[in-house]
Specification:
about 190 residues, mainly alpha, 4 strands
């Protein structure tokens, strides 16, 4: 093999050898092929390390070093929404638009009024007369939850139980009406 042929074969190797980065660790002669950010403030600038030194750098790296808890919390909250602005869903009843019809603030743009009735209370179910009477027996008024009905029932049973009233027949009759009212409401609400 002539000298020209050998030069031609080893030229890419020498060129790659000249472009090889050395490890940025002090005194290391290894090849720096692994990058690591210089600091939290300069995440787009890198050190170049060999495998051993990048491992030790990564073990010691702490992005939040020197920051107070409030700053860390703000950064974490901002990262949960990918650094995008966000706002609460509440308080949307007042919609304001500029002259071009675009929404101002956190209100949705609804130029055709499709969602105007969205904030209104849903219509309540008309109560049957039996249901109204049963609620009145339990000393309640609609709207109520089943838990409220149950609590009122328990309280009234204790109050009107014949044992608590010395065997009074009127209390016993009242207790029967309370039990019937509770049975009717239980069938509706549970």
């Amino acid at each position: 093999m002539s000298r020209n042929q050998s030069e031609h074969l080893f030229r890419p190797f020498r060129k790659a050898q000249q472009q090889m980065k050395l490890c940025d660790a002090h005194g290391c002669e290894g090849e720096g092929i692994y990058r690591a950010p210089i600091s939290r403030d300069h995440l787009d600038q890198y050190y170049w390390f060999c495998l051993d030194h990048v491992r030790s750098y990564n073990r010691a790296w702490n992005f939040f070093a020197g920051l107070d808890e409030g700053t860390i919390e703000r950064m974490t909250r901002a990262d949960t929404v990918w650094q995008r602005p966000s706002w609460p869903f509440s308080g949307r009843s007042h919609r304001h638009y500029d002259n071009a019809g675009f929404s101002k603030g956190n209100a949705a743009n609804d130029p055709f009024g499709f969602f105007e009735h969205e904030d209104a209370d849903p219509p309540s179910k008309p109560a049957s007369t039996e249901e109204t009477r049963a609620l009145a027996v339990l000393k309640l008024r609609p709207p109520v939850t089943f838990e409220e009905i149950r609590q009122s029932y328990r309280r009234l049973v204790k109050e009107h139980h014949p044992d608590a009233n010395g065997g009074d027949k009127a209390a016993e009759e009242r207790l029967k009406i309370i039990i019937q009212a509770y049975g009717h409401l239980k069938a509706i609400y549970s």
